[in-house]
């Protein structure tokens, strides 16, 4: 294979610009509602794009759900307001907004900083510091060029609100992530897992964020697809089998190196990174190893791929550690996935805000005898004294007894109820310390979350597959997509518009489709033009039916490979099995036993 055919295109026009044009022309993706002028942040995946996206999703499902033995659910995209009160999204799911004083256009303040200064992670900076940077560098509005110095940087909540039902309807929100649909159903999902940790629940679906300034086509949009896995573990007893990924080579950019003046990326293995403490969580390390192999398999260029650790200022408050998978596009690194140790934050929050139990019973190896502080309040006293708040008083007493036994040592006990202190006689609480034999305890599991952006990955796969070369004296553009994810595996052509050739070609199409392969039929234009069309959409193989096919007793056809443009003469009867093996990666085109053609 020539060097031109293996290297990405490098020209004055960025690959991204060429890719967006190709995507629109060939049906990968384009801005939605074009007949009405379009709307920012919303894109439609065309026939090729929808097929590629579906193949990527299927590949993710096979690896992170099926191969790992995890469940999959499909939760609603609209959820009631209390879900997001509990999760913290209503109070803290914000971006930084700065508004132009002249044209009124709103912009992501951190993006304005990152695009025009040496700051790479402005999102992690506090708002006052972002305002100082804008003033120091005299940054201007990207839309009209007016100065932004002195303009207030404010927070903007990204949630899309809606109403559930008519009249006095219940407020709801479009989910900003698929994760909450898994967390809120944990009490039921744990039953499906027979209350045995560890277990995982996956979901592929739409999420919505009202981005201030969507940009770079499908990289940052207001509606997008996530593929997420919430993996529930007992932090004291559950450990991953790191031997399965210990030898996976990774390119890591830890926070310590990012903060160092001469910091640099570290090339190591998963096993060594855990042993040296670079990766603090073995579970996060395990999923980084699995993801590295998977990204490679679906077509991400490993020379333009790394894992970057979140800096303390950008890490979500609930995460003890987080690493992003990043891909390089036109000199910029973009986030493809996040791998977080979320601790027990999510389940604890929903347990506190709901009336359900978000725990799993941990069985002891042997029963234990323990001392437990209990209360058995005198309700004939609490009822008249506290009325409708009597049960809330009982709950406060139970909590206090578990937390601080010494509070019951005096003649009276003080509790806090709705911000007010109340004192009641200790003898009325029924406080006692008893020995109890317990077989186990209820624990709130911790969560390890690999969260993948599907749309960004589709863009990255296309970008990393974009190639330009010269064939037979003509410039050629093609997408070097892996056959497993390519929208179409085989293009079938009759050499000329001839009834017999067309009938044979259509028979071949039917046989290949029966074998589960995606196939396109094309009889328009000369054969070279048809090859170029399939090259540009990334079809790995083309089959040409010619007059030799009709004359040959063995009935053979010409099969052409996209990347090398090499051609071989192969029997029609073998095509379904051969093409299936080529798509699955179980066979290489160069190893096919057929007659080579020039």
Automatic annotation (TrEMBL):
Keywords: Aminoacyl-tRNA synthetase, ATP-binding, Cytoplasm, Ligase, Nucleotide-binding, Protein biosynthesis. Belongs to the class-II aminoacyl-tRNA synthetase family. This is glycine--tRNA ligase. SUPFAM superfamilies: Class II aaRS ABD-related, Class II aaRS and biotin synthetases. GO terms for molecular function: ATP binding; glycine-tRNA ligase activity. One of its GO terms (biological process) is glycyl-tRNA aminoacylation. CDD domains: GlyRS-like_core, GlyRS_anticodon.
């Amino acid at each position: 294979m020539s060097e031109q055919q293996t290297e990405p295109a490098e020209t004055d026009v960025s690959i991204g610009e060429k890719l967006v044009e190709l995507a629109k022309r060939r049906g990968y993706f384009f801005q939605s509602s074009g007949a009405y002028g379009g709307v920012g942040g919303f894109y439609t995946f065309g026939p090729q794009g929808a097929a590629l996206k579906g193949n990527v999703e299927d590949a993710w499902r096979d690896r992170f759900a099926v191969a790992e033995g995890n469940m999959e659910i499909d939760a609603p995209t609209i959820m009631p307001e209390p879900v997001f009160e509990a999760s913290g999204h209503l109070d803290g799911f914000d971006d930084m907004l700065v508004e132009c004083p002249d044209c009124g256009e709103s912009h992501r303040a951190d993006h304005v900083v990152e695009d025009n200064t040496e700051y790479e992670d402005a999102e992690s900076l506090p708002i006052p510091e972002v305002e100082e940077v804008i003033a120091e560098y005299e940054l201007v509005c990207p839309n009209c060029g007016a100065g932004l110095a002195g303009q207030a940087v404010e927070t903007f909540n990204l949630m899309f609100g809606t109403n559930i039902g008519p009249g006095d309807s219940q407020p709801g929100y479009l989910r900003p992530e698929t994760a909450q649909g898994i967390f809120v159903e944990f009490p039921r999902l744990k039953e499906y897992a027979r209350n045995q940790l560890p277990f995982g629940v996956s979901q592929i679906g739409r999420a919505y964020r009202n981005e201030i300034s969507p940009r770079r086509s499908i990289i940052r949009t207001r509606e997008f697809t996530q593929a997420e896995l919430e993996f529930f573990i007992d932090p004291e007893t559950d450990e991953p089998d790191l031997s399965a990924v210990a030898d996976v080579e990774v390119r890591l950019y830890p926070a310590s190196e990012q903060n160092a003046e001469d910091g640099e990326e570290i090339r190591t293995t998963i096993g060594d990174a855990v042993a040296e403490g670079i990766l603090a969580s073995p579970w996060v390390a395990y999923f980084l190893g699995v993801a590295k192999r998977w990204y490679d398999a679906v077509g991400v260029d490993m020379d333009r791929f790394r894992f970057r650790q979140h800096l303390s200022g950008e890490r979500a408050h609930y995460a003890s550690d987080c690493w992003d998978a990043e891909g390089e596009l036109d000199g910029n690194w973009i986030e493809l996935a996040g791998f977080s140790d979320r601790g027990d934050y999510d389940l604890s929050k929903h347990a506190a805000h709901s009336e359900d139990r978000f725990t799993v019973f941990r069985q002891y190896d042997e029963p234990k005898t323990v001392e437990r502080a209990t209360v058995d309040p005198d309700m004939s006293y609490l009822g008249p004294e506290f009325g409708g708040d009597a049960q809330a008083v009982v709950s406060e007493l139970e909590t206090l007894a578990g937390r601080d036994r010494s509070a019951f040592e005096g003649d009276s006990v003080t509790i806090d109820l709705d911000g007010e202190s109340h004192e009641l006689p200790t003898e009325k609480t029924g406080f006692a310390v008893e020995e109890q034999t317990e077989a186990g305890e209820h624990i709130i599991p911790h969560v390890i979350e690999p969260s993948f952006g599907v749309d960004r990955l589709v863009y990255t796969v296309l970008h990393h597959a974009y190639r330009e070369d010269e064939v037979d004296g003509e410039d050629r553009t093609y997408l070097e997509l892996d056959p497993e994810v390519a929208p179409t595996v085989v293009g079938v052509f009759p050499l000329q518009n001839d009834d017999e050739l067309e009938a044979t070609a259509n028979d071949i199409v039917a046989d290949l489709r029966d074998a589960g392969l995606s196939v396109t039929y094309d009889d328009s234009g000369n054969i070279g033009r048809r090859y170029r069309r399939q090259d540009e959409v990334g079809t790995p193989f083309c089959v040409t039916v010619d007059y030799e096919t009709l004359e040959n007793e063995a009935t053979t056809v010409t099969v052409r490979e996209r990347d090398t443009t090499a051609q071989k003469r192969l029997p029609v009867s073998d095509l379904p099995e051969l093409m299936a093996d080529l798509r699955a990666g179980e066979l290489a085109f160069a190893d096919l036993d057929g007659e080579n053609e020039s």
